[in-house]
Design goal:
The protein has 432 residues and is of the alpha/beta class. The protein folds into two domains: 5-211 and 361-392, Rossmann fold (3-Layer(aba) Sandwich), CATH 3.40.50.450; 217-357 and 412-424, Rossmann fold (3-Layer(aba) Sandwich), CATH 3.40.50. Helix content is 31%, strand content 18%. The strands form five sheets. A seven-stranded mixed beta sheet has the order 9-8-7-10-11-17-18, with helices on both faces. Helix 4 crosses helix 5 (251-259) and helix 5 (251-259) packs across helix 10. It starts with a strand and ends in an 8-residue tail after the last helix.
Amino acid sequence: MENLKIHRAETLGETTFDSPLIDKLVRFYDGEAVACHDRTKELSKLEKIEDIEYFELAGPRKKVFFNPKDVTVGIVTCGGLCPGLNDVIRALTFCSLESYGVKRVLGFKYGYEGLVAKYYHYPVELTTDNTDEIHEKGGTMLKSSRGRQDDDEIINTLIHYGVDILFTIGGDGTQRGSRDIVNKLKERNIPISVVGIPKTIDNDISLIQRSFGFETAVEATWDIITNAHNEARAYRNGVGLVKLMGRESGWIAASAALANSAVNFCLVPEVEFDLHGPKGFLEVLEKRLRRKEHAVVVVAEGAGQHLFDKAKDATDKSGNKRLQDIGDLMNEEIHAHFKKKGLEVNVKYFDPSYNIRSRRANANDSMYCLRLGNNAVHAAMAGCTNMIVGLHHDRLVHLPIEMIGARKTIDPQSWFWQTVIQATHQPHSMVN
């Protein structure tokens, strides 16, 4: 495969130690790769076969960079909660200790804060005993926090505890932090592997087909939407208004609308809409209520941000834009519209975000977390660094962090969004 354009993960150096998995596994993945491109759309645009680019497949290697018995592993979880965090921690711990026999695994508490001495968050040693049942609970046993920390201080802590491998579980902000740590490690010529496991309940990391926790989140919306439907049907002109996660993409809201056909309107960040005017949402909602006397509206938290005053824009500790509350705005505007028309309306507003984020992973996500954790360990033991493990075209691959760019968003012209339109029967456009 010498002539192929393979995007390989950075490595710390030559792999010289035999993997302890040689006698346990029948297959290794040295040198294998999978095409980056979409098989039906992107490949047709290429002029020649040599233009196809590849990612290297994740999986165990026959040779590893580190001598396992001398290795100390560190794990950190950052950012918001997501179903499956404990599953990933457990998988990393078990694979490191049971499969590779590393010296010890340390969990650093409260995100990157736990790697800075001034916060006095001392690490906890993770074992197969104290992580054995954590996958049965939501949240993260290692706690979490948001925001950047000083890279030199982080590295000093890693050196203090003799950490050879650091696993960072978090979203794009966390992985940008991982990249900066790697760059500082290079400056200081320190051979520590940094491997990320991407986390976003919104399922919107570019090049990643599916992020862990997403399926659990969509599944959790079913009962919530059903309850909103029940509330709406119980009152004259009842409206069940449900706000779901989705800062810059509407994957959860749209998937929830497909999973539960009670949804009549699905509003996502990718598709702008007007509130007022003959084609605006409020007029369309009024027509629906005059006809059916109830409606269920699902709105992603990042939808309709164009309706707010841009002067109020601000960012959080992670550098993410603070969103204006579209749920509160729509609740107020619906009441105001129908009051002006002299019509009764009964809005029942549901905001289940934290209830969804904090639950444990479902069976499918739990299996996925196990695979992600195991393959992150395989990559790190082989000396890979400055990379994440993710699902791409149904295969787990090594993705260089530098390739993670713009958000993965819904294409309003895609079959996926067209299916949402067909399922909800909402207008294709609610713009005047």
